[in-house]
Structures are given as structure tokens and as C-alpha cells.
Amino acid sequence: MEEWVGGIWHKYITKKSRTDFTQAEVAFAEVNKSVGVVFRAMGGHGVKRVEAASARDYLVRRTWLQKISGENQQVSLAWQDEESLRLPEKLAVFPTKKLNRELYIWLAILAAHHKQGFKHWAIDNQQLVVDVLAKYPMLKPRYQKLAQAFVQTRADFSKRPIPEQTMEQAIIQAILKPGSVEEFPTVNYAPQAVFLWLYPSAQLNPQIMPSFDETEQENEDEAHSTSTKSKSTRKKGERIEDGESRDGMMIFRLESLFSWSEFSQLDRGSDDSDDDEEETLKVAEDLDKITLSKQQQQKSASIKIDMDLPSAMEDDIPLGDGLKLPEWDYKKEQLVGDRCLLLPMLPKNSEAAKLPLRLQKIAKIIQAQFEQLQSVRYWLKGQVQGEELDLSAWLDFYVEQQISPTQERGLFQSFRGNNRDISTLLLADLSMSTDAHLDNDNRVIDVVKDSMLLFGEALNSVGDNFSMYGFSSIRRSNVRFTVLKNFNERYSDEIRGRLQAVKPGYYTRMGAAIRQATKILTEQKSTQKLLLILTDGKPNDIDYYEGRFGIEDTRHAISEAQKLGIKPFCITIDQEAEDYLPYLFGIDGYTVIHKPSQLPIRLPQLYYQLTSHQ
Question: Which end of the chain is least crowded, N or C, by CB within 10 Å?
């Protein structure tokens, strides 16, 4: 009975204390796709994620009802950092859904033009609005509509202290006439949230967050990659110095544990059984603030290294001491030389083998299709001798001769056989994620091996020049580049044996692998050069390569290849690839295979489509 009455009271007092328009509420999930398109179309960084942000602490003066109900202590605001743009999880600022949706769009436009941090939050936001409206005058009516409606929703400040009244008047004027207010008073409480503006990023407090240099990051090996990604909103985080407390027993009364978000400086222990990632994510969902400490013992890093690296007897066969390659640092906007060590390797225990029986029927069908490429014929124009007159060349010659004396040129065309002057390199991602099962009988790596085998059979039948490599990595000092077939090697049972011997590797340092593949392709004499990249996920590694760093380095490596006349094309089975592949390869530079089991058939078909016009 008490709980029932308490629930009714809570609903009543919460409803009475709220000042937003819950009936017109719009959730970020309803507009996330359109907001993302607007953000990137208006100049926002293509690799930034656009996602919802959870509420953050906001010290604003609260009404008596809000104090009783506990409302308005946290507010969901719009902000961004180098990794992503965070917009409010829900918006109910205006009395209509249409205006709340338009507010999401406006914030995305504003964020797309905000390139630096804030020196003065209110003055900088005014200037940002002025710049956007000056660049896009057609947005002025929409902004004025939002501004007028927003001012009408502001609370009555007539009974507040004079400094707060002055602040509110300055904010209203700044919203209605951006750029007109140059000074803002100092107040003890934050002003009522201004949802038309962006806020500073909710980064970790630099006074309590230890500084990490690059070397320390690599030694710490904070493992950011997880097999299960949380779809929750972004949490506020802080770092604290980890005390030298030893594992022990904590005695407390349960009544003193007020909430999940209250922090107790307690060593959580290092029991191996306490590694249930799914359960950890559920706990994180319930936290308002996630507090991290810098521990001296990095259990995850040491265990990953010891377990991931096989002994020399079981490892693949290294070919030489390795090659040093550069890497792009997007923060410094420069290519750092000799940053990665790439190790060419051969698959361990590979033996000559025939094409598996299960693939032989499919291989014959694909080979028959590819044999059509050999019979393609074309007209070679502008020849001195030929079967027919080249009317286009003759017309040009005739017109030029009427103007001035012109030297005679080739006026004939000759019918010739196909000249497929093309070199193709297939680069396969062999990261540990390929060890995942697609069904009870097949893993991703099995599909990748079948795809490369059929690819080899198809190109061998048409006589195209091709090579195949695989790659994985463990930090920048161990980028493993598996040699499956060189350009100079004949496709044979030995190559088929290597393909069947490949096994899942480690992480996906894609930039270094692409640079080495580019170097190999540039050494070929062909006029057409194609780089096919087969992957099941985005670039990542256990050091700083996670996130935007890996994306930017890969993009720069692809750009380098394109400048050298190489055409990169990505084939992926990652269902979330459309979030980042357009930024890396362009809208026409990739394809997503929605059914991974279809990859062995689709890979040769894609190659046929890409090269049949050559």
C-alpha cells in the first residue's frame, strides 16, 4: 500500500514540477538518421558519430516543487568533441513536435560549423549563429521562428535576484538579435538552459585526470575494443587517483548506500571470474556518472599480450626483419615516418592442396562467366591501316585541313581482341573477429577462405594478373602481413594450400596494410590497378589506433593510393559499415554483403562488374 501511494505521489509531483511539453516530446532515435545527414551535408566531419547524450549536472536555481520532486538537477544538452556530436536524448522544449524536430536540425547545422572550443560560451554561440545565418540566409526565417517560440517558453525571472534578471535579459536579447550582446553578468547559478546553443564538451576534469603521453598509452594498453557494443547514451566520466588500498573487506550499513552513482573508493578486485562484459554493460546503463581510476596493475593488457602471442613454434613463418612504414597523425595533421613495423609472413603448416570438392561446382560456373571477358573485342581507333575508316578522325582531319595545312594522321580503325591490362591485389582482413561463428558449421574465416579460393579460380581462368595478402596486427610494432600469392607466383595447388591454412589473427591496423599493398601495386607495369579490401569491421588496435585515429589513418592511406592511380574498393560484411565507409572510400567505393554466406559467390561477381569494361 505504501509503495502504491508513493508511486502515485511521485507521478503527481513530478508532473506538476515539469516545465517542458511532454505531449510534444521528440526522441533522438526518431530523427537520428536525418540529423546525421544534415550534419555531414552542412560540413560536419564525416567520421564523427552523431548520437544521444545523457543528462549532465546543471546547477540552476530550482523551484520549490522541483526541489521536492528532485527534478531539474540534470539537463540533456548539445555538445561535441573530436569523436562525436552529442544531442539531447529527448527534446520537449516547444509545444509542437514540428518545432522540436526543427530544433534537432538547427543544432546539427550549428555543430557542423563549430570547429573550435569555446572561449566565452554565450559570446561564441552568438557569433556562431551570426556566421551560419550569414552563410545561409534562407535559414533566417526558420531561426527567428525557433527564437521567438523559445523566448516564450522562458520562465518568469521578475522575482529573481537582479544579476539573474540581467543575465536572463541578456540571453533573450542574444537569442533574438545574435551578436548584439558583448557582456554578460556574473551569477551564482547557471541560467536556464539555452537549447538553441551548443555547450562545451563534457570532458574529463583535467585537474583530476592524469595526463598520458603516447608511450604511456601504448604501455598501458587500455583495451577499448569490445565484442558487444553498448547502444546506450553517452555517460559523464571522471578520473580519480587510485589509492594504494589493498584488497580487503568493506563494512557498511546498507542504508548508507544511497544510489548507484555515489562513488566509494574501493578496489574492485581482480578476480578472473569478474569479467562478464554483458553484465558490466548493464551496470553502466544504470550509472549517471562513470568514475575511473588509474591502476598500477593493468590486468587486461598483460593477459591479452600473454594469450594473444603464440610461441615461435606455433606462429606463422616470418619473412625477414620487417618493413618500417609511416602513419598519419590526424591531430598533428602530418605523416609520421617509420612509425609502424610490418612483418611479412607465410601461413604455418601450409601444404599443397586441391580446390575443396564443395567449391568445384561453383568454381566451374564462375569460370564460365569469366571466360566471356576473354572474348570481348573492341575498335582500336586512329590507325594508319585498318579494316574500316575512322569517321571521327577523318572529320577532325578534314575540318583542320580547311583552316590550315595539316599533317596526315591515322584515319582508320582496327578490330582487335581484348587487352585486359590490369593488376589486382586482394587484401583480406584476418583479425580475431573472423573467428566468430555465422552458424553451427561455419565461421567468418571459413567464408573468407572460400571467397579467396573462388576469386583465385576466377582470375586464373581469365588470365588476369593478381595477388592475395592477409593482415592483422598487435599494436604498431607488429603489423602482420600474410603472403598468400605474389604477382610473380603462378596460381597452383601450393597457393590453394596457403589459402586453406590461414587462421584468425589479432586486430585491424588497416592503414599500414593498405600502404604496403599500394607499394606492391605501384611496382606493376599494368595501366589499370585495383586494390580490393575484404573486411568484417572498422580499423582498430589495442593502442591509440582505436576510434578516429584509425579511421583517419586509413582514409589517408586510401587517398595516397588514389593519387598513385590505384582504385581502392572495399567489400565488407560489417552491417554498421555505412556509418564510416562512405567517409573512407566514397559512396561508390564500397559494398556491404548483408548475407556473409554469399561472400564466396559475390566476390568474383563484384570483380567481374568492376573490370568487365576494361
Answer: N
Nearest Cα neighbor of 32 from 82, 85, 79, 97 is 85
> What are the extents of the domains in the chain?
2-176, 346-372+421-611, 377-417
Nearest to 535 by CA among 603, 610, 474, 486: 603
Rg of the chain, C-alpha, whole Å: 31
Query: CATH: 2.40.160.60, 2.70.50.60, 3.40.50.410, 2.60.40.1730. Which one for 346-372+421-611?
Result: 3.40.50.410
Rounded Cα gap, residues 158 and 327, in angstroms: 59
Q: How far apart are CA 603 and CA 589, in angstroms?
A: 14
What is the four-CA torsion angle of 297, 300, 301, 306, rounded to 10 degrees?
110
Please state, in angstroms and rounded to a whole number, the distance separating the CA atoms of residues 129 and 166.
Answer: 22
Q: What is the pLDDT of residue 535?
A: 93
Residue count of the chain: 614
How is residue 201 written as a grid cell? Answer: 564538451
Coil vs helix vs strand at 391: helix
363 backbone dihedrals φ, ψ, rounded to 5°: -60, -40
| Amino acid, res. 292 | L
- DSSP string for 508-541: B-HHHHHHHHHHHHHTS--SEEEEEEEESS--B-
